[in-house]
Structure formats: structure tokens, C-alpha cells
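Morning!

This is the sequence you dropped in the shared folder:
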Amino acid sequence: MDSGYAQHVCNSASKFVQMAKYYSPSLRGVDTSTAPSGVGTVNILCNIRGRKKWLVLNNVLYVPSAHANLISVLQLLKRGAKVEFSSRDAILRNKSNGKNLFTASEYHRVYALDL
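The structure's back. C-alpha cells below.
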């Protein structure tokens, strides 16, 4: 998860369940200045307390040259999630009812979704 980036980014076309051509301007920050090749939907199978659950991300930018796949905390917040960070992990909760949606563990100074 990335708290400093405004868009979800994926570097693998095979992860997309739906993708369209991207016509907007280039991005700054992924690899200096990069033009996404597409935009679409990515489904990620996550693990929350031993249960498998799908995380559906919309408006994900396809950037083949990106060094990592990024989940934008800002986009999660805009969709109604609440994100709580600790030094070991992060918990994504439903803002309206407080239920846990997904968890991410700290791994080499980055929060990675628990798959």
C-alpha cells in the first residue's frame, strides 16, 4: 500500500479482469514520468484471519515499467475505507460499521496485503 500515491498502479496486464486504453496525461513519481498503457479493474485474492476474500480495485493504471504494484491509500479512503497503521501492520476497515476488510503486514518498510 502506498500512502503517497493518488492512483492504484499495476505492472502486469495479466492481473486485469477488464482494461481500456488510457488517454490522460503521463504520471509523475512511478518512474519519473510514465505514460500508463491502460486503466481497468484488478481483483486480488487476500487472506483475512484465514478466510480468502476478494479485493476489487477499480481505475487501476496499467504501467508496465513500474517497479512494483501499488495500492493507493487515498483511493481506499475515497471508497469508504478507514486505514489504521502500526509499526507491524495495517488494517483496512469499513468506515461505516468498523468491520475489518483487509490486512497488510509490514515487509521491508512497505505494507503488503496479506495474501
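Headline: Residues 9-113 form one domain.

More detail when I'm at my desk.
O.
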